[in-house]
Amino acid sequence: MKNEKHQFTIDHSPLTMIRIKKKVNLIKDFLEKGRTVSIKDREEAMNYLVAFVAMIRPRLSEFENANKKFAETIQFVHQHPSVLNNLRVAIMAQLINSNLVPMLTESGITVSRGAGRELYARLKHKLLPAAQDPNDFLYLLNRIFFKHNDYEWVEKIGRDKWMHLFELIGLSFSGNEPAIIKQVILSLQILSARVAQLGWENEITHNTPPQWQPPNNPFSIQQHLVYEIKEQVLRHNQSREAVQELAKQLGDVLGECAELVQLIRNETAEKGTSLSQTFILFQIEQKLNRMSLLLDITDADDKINLARFANLFITVVRNENRKNSIREFLSQTTGYLAYQIAEHKGKKGNKYITSSPLEYFQMIGSAMWGGLIICFVAIFKNLLGLLHLAPFWSGFVYSINYSLGFVAIEETKATLATKQPAFTASAVASSLDTSKTDEPPNLYNLAVTVSKVSRSQIASFIGNLIVVFPGTYLLAWLYDWAVGHPLVQGEKAAHLLQDQHPWQSLSLLYACNTGFFLFLSGIIAGYVQNKINYGRIDKRLTEHPVLRLSLPQNRLQKIAAYLNRNGGSLAGNIALGFFLGMAGIVGKIFGIPFDIRHITISAANTSLGAYGVGWEHINYRYLGNAFAGVLGIGFLNFLVSFSLAFTVAVRSRGIKLKDYPGFLKILWKYFRSHPLDFIRPRKRRQEAG
Description:
CATH architecture of the largest domain: Up-down Bundle
Structural class: mainly alpha
CATH topology of the largest domain: Glycerol uptake facilitator protein
Distance between the termini: 98 Å
Number of strands: 0
């Protein structure tokens, strides 16, 4: 009995009572049972679409196989026409029974509430997502593409393949679906009103050419045409010919709107731009693109541009997955502003790239003058150290000293080697920019450009160092001769040498800090120059009532022209001076290992240290290591500054380096064929070709 009772309890244990529910493949279930999706059952239609997308969705670690899974699904659909029919009905059930307006007017389109408010809204919804109406079509999309990274495989499949699927399904919209057409027309009206309102913002009207001022302003004209199309389409006895003619006119006007947006954007290279103007142009462009798609649906030709529809589908999926992404928003809205800053640096960067032997030696000569100025900067910096000021004031006077030196280099047209990378990186990135041409970039010519940048950088390093080492040593000797003792000596001199040593100090880490500051000063220079251009500072200065009374007109115009031409560079040089001057003081205040190492200043300090220690007391191997440390500092100054500037320049242009996988191979092949081109120019210009 005990055994029987024991067996009886085992049979009814919790484990034996668990029933594992088998996951049903809804697509195959409908297929096997011969079921069809009802256009009236929205929930069933939604579940069918969820199951269909699940057939395509690759595993997280297999996104590269997205195209393979998509091809398998298409083949499955071809083999089973009933699946295609159910898919068509399921989609139509959602379109007819859902509110499409939010998707058509908001998804993938930034709401007109300013960059700050949009950023706040995204941050708020990132913490607590907004509630969604089940009747909203976006609710359906979030049910189907519920994984946060679904947009990645949707984009990987590509527009053409999605177009093929939509063509198989037979997507078309005409007057036969009045519920859809009414929502499309309403969406078109909403977008039209928003475009017209944005077109009257001061940032747009002040930059609109005379030929497009009222009454010829396309932003206003398009709103009238949209109203006429609405009246025609919603009539019971609508004229297809009239609708098509109005649609053609509206298409032309939308093209003029896009042309005006691009014209204003192109002029920002000279006039500058602001975040507000950038944000408005960005919104107008988004709305015009969406209006073009909606117009294609309402033009009464019973055809739809599948390319635009596929783009909308991909955009909406991405937006729903990334709608609360702060990084995505900042990347989109600040892209053009960053582009103008990078473009400013790119134009200046061309003067730092040498092509011919003459330009190469001119670069060395210019860098020698820059090196001479740095000799005095280093001497004055050490003289200021003798004042024994409080930490803040010590950093402040160091910063003024550096700033004056950098401004002097700029004003005398001399060259400082480490100022080049922030500018040349933008020039290199512009070689990959295909937005201004329809042709792909010439990667061989880009490799040639890289070789030019390399040898130009080497030329400026050579010019700086061949003057800084002996020049600073000579000034140290003159100081000793005039005053009667070295500027630095004993332990302080030895410390100067140790500070440049590659492994007995943190000099290489500090060199990376300097590289970042060099990059940041370049960004500041571009930003300030952009603000000067956009704010028309020169015009405002010459018209300032107090300045006009207190200064002669000629002098005022010269000052205004100087600031308009050099304001950005002046701000960048002063910023760099303060970054370098205050870094060490910040490290001391907070008790952290934080400082800077700049190749030319480190070279000057090495000379001062060598003179102060005395040749009879120097360990030449140790001195050699210090010299090697200086070269390492220079390399890291360049590498960090160039890498950061190149990244910003590339991203601001929307360039994806993964689109050019063959470039490194071409660059390596060019280097193996012409290694000396990266050090010095050829006697004859044979690089192109």
